Structure formats: structure tokens, C-alpha cells
Amino acid sequence: MEALKNNRPLPTTSKIARFNPFLKNNQIRLGGRLQFAPLSTDVRHPLLLEGNHPFVLLMIKETHIRLHHLGTGIVLSELRAHFWILRGR
Q: Which PANTHER family does the entry link to (predicted)?
């Protein structure tokens, strides 16, 4: 987090370095190839969320129930429209 705050590159050992993350409003967002796509900022640069956080686990469970208990792939696809969850599988 400190490296991102100070605009320094992340260590190569970081779990999130491959996502080209950046901070916006104290939120970690993904960088990437959609940078210039004519999409909203939230779609181009989704929030990066920790998969083991209790709030994220509740969000996954709620989405699973809302989608009538469909499979993992569909639930993740729905969530990835707005967020990127680390270890989301």
C-alpha cells in the first residue's frame, strides 16, 4: 500500500503486482489494457478486493443466492463486472 501511495513500483513478490494496480480515492483499482476503452471508470478499472475479507465473503454469498444458486463461474462473472476478487475461485 505504501508503494502505491508513493507512486513507486510494487515488489515483484507482491500478489497484486501483475494487475498494474493504482490508488484512486484510497481504493486499489486494476490498471490494464482497457485504459482507453469507451467504458465507465468502474468497468475499466474495477476495485481490487481481498477474497478472504468477511465483507467480500458476504458479497459472494449474496450474489450466489440472488442468482438462484448458480455455479461458481457465473457468480464470479457477475461480481467481476464490478470488482476483481483475489483468489476468487
A: PHD-TYPE DOMAIN-CONTAINING PROTEIN, RIBONUCLEASE H
Whole-Å CA distances, 35 to 10, 30, 46, 53, 58? 19, 10, 11, 27, 30
Residue 17 amino acid letter:
A
| 22, 31 contact by CB (below 8 A) | yes
The model's pTM: 0.77
Q: Pinpoint the alpha helices (H) of 1-89.
A: 2-5, 41-44, 54-66, 72-80
- Return d(Cα 26, Cα 62) in angstroms, integer: 25
Q: State how far the Cα of 87 lies from the Cα of 39, in Å rounded to an integer.
A: 25
If we measure between CA atoms, which residue out of 73, 44, 71, 76 comes closest to residue 59? 76
Check residue 73 and give its pLDDT: 93
∠ CA 27-32-38, rounded to 5° = 95
Residue type, 80: R
